[in-house]
Amino acid sequence: MSTPSDYYKDKVAVVTGAASGIGLALVETMLSYGAKKVIMADFNDENLNREAARLKLAYPDKVLGLHCNVTKEDDVRQMIHKAEEFGGRIDLLFNNAGAGLAGAFDQLTNDDWAKAFALNFYGALYGVRAVLPILRKQGGGHIVNIISGIAFYPMPEQTMYAATKAALNGMTLALRAELWDEAIRVTSATPGTTATAIFQGKAMPPTAQTPELSAQAILAGVAKNERLVIGDRLALGEKGDAVSARYGLNPDFSDMWDKILAEAARKRRAGEVAL
Fold first, then answer.
1. Cα(219)–Cα(67) distance, rounded to whole angstroms?
2. Is 161 a catalytic residue?
3. Which residue out of 7, 8, 153, 161 is catalytically annotated?
4. How far apart, in whole angstroms, are the C-alpha atoms of residue 26 and residue 145?
5. Edge to edge, what strands does the sheet with 12-16 contain?
6. How many whole angstroms separate alpha carbon 79 and alpha carbon 56?
7. Cα–Cα distance, 152 to 186 (Å, whole number)
8. In the predicted model, is pLDDT for residue 40 greater than 90?
9. pTM > 0.90: yes or no
């Protein structure tokens, strides 16, 4: 009987935002599953060089670290080209690079919004655009775009984060159908609330899971070609992002969400931790 890990055996994978957090956990987990090559792309050279060097010792000839600023299409295009050269092919692309963005709407400028979409949306779009010719030449492959549960329950004082991740989810699921008959799989994946640098010194939610557990859940869902992978399902079952995806945009639950999120907004305005 095959296991989720079998899907990654002898595959070549590219991961953006790979030098820390969920991206790094995806890299390490796929290597432990027997991936043939994993290309780590990141903007933080210090983290990238350190983690790539560490993994090269553990997995000789299987790891390549590449500097990449995903907000620049030429950077992404060159990274994908070098990744194909290193791996001989690309079987999986994880568009993971992004940031959790916060701030009161009135304090956000058009420049802030442009930077938010450049990182959280266009970075993935550039990756898809660059890898598609390779996947078509090969006769297939898998693209995974890392979204967030906030796409289903837009949070107060996180308008940019909610908007960028909702847009990415919409593009991903539309593209899944568009590429279906070309044997190119496309998946949206939420990590769930995960203990990473995204919290930047703020109080960590008690339900936060490890990046490793998030990576395992994402990889298990991707292996099954799920349309939407819920990254905290292993830890929380039918709670967490599963609840948000099922009910967050359901008009029958509008009153409940209005009450919950309005109270969260009040607490955040008062400087309290909320949700």
1. 24
2. yes
3. 161
4. 13
5. 63-67, 37-42, 12-16, 92-95, 141-146, 184-190, 228-230
6. 19
7. 19
8. yes
9. yes
**Tokens at 121, concatenated:** 């949306």
Phi and psi angles of residue 12, each rounded to the nearest 5 degrees, phi first? -105, 125
**What is the Cα–Cα distance from 243 to 41, expressed in whole angstroms?**
32
Tell whether the torsion through CA atoms of 92, 237, 258 and 275 is positive or negative: negative
Output Rg (C-alpha) for the chain, integer angstroms: 18
Tens of pLDDT, residue by residue over 155-188, are 999 999 999 999 999 999 999 999 999 999 999 9
SS3 readout for the chain: CCCHHHHHCCCEEEEECCCCHHHHHHHHHHHHCCCCEEEEEECCHHHHHHHHHHHHHHCCCCEEEEECCCCCHHHHHHHHHHHHHHHCCCCEEEECCCCCCCECHHHCCHHHHHHHHHHHHHHHHHHHHHHHHHHHHHCCEEEEEECCHHHCCCCCCEHHHHHHHHHHHHHHHHHHHHHHHHCEEEEEEECCCECCHHHCCCCCCCCCECHHHHHHHHHHHHHCCCCEEECCHHHHCCCCHHHHHHHCCCHHHHHHHHHHHHHHHHHHHCCCCCC
